[in-house]
């Protein structure tokens, strides 16, 4: 299987000002291979882009990677802030 985690990191690293804060977590569900990208809160705008164009471009590249089996790849972009529960 292709190393999608490395692909995501390679694409995002030149976009951000805090490359050490990039984290990609993987979770497999019944239908998806889920990747959660976490960046520094200061860099979230750079990764998403205007009207989500950069995020859409990143997802297009990541989703085009062929994986074996019926599962699909899903990328979620998070800003690294703690969620209030």
TrEMBL record:
Keyword Cell wall biogenesis/degradation: yes
Subcellular location: Cytoplasm
Keyword Chloroplast part of the UniProt annotation: no
Keywords per UniProt: Cell shape, Cell wall biogenesis/degradation, Chaperone, Cytoplasm, RNA-binding
Major localization class: cytoplasm
Family in the record: Belongs to the KhpA RNA-binding protein family.
UniProt function note: A probable RNA chaperone. Forms a complex with KhpB which binds to cellular RNA and controls its expression. Plays a role in peptidoglycan (PG) homeostasis and cell length regulation.
Record's subunit section: Forms a complex with KhpB.
Name the UniProt record assigns to this protein: RNA-binding protein KhpA
Lineage: Bacteria, Bacillati, Bacillota, Bacilli, Lactobacillales
């Amino acid at each position: 299987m292709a190393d999608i985690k490395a692909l995501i990191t390679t694409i995002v690293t030149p976009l951000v000002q805090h490359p050490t804060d990039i984290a990609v977590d993987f979770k497999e569900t019944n239908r998806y291979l889920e990747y959660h990208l976490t960046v520094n809160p200061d860099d979230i705008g750079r990764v998403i882009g205007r009207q989500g164009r950069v995020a859409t471009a990143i997802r297009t590249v990541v989703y085009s990677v062929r994986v074996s089996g019926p599962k699909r790849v899903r990328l979620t972009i998070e800003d690294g802030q703690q969620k209030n529960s």
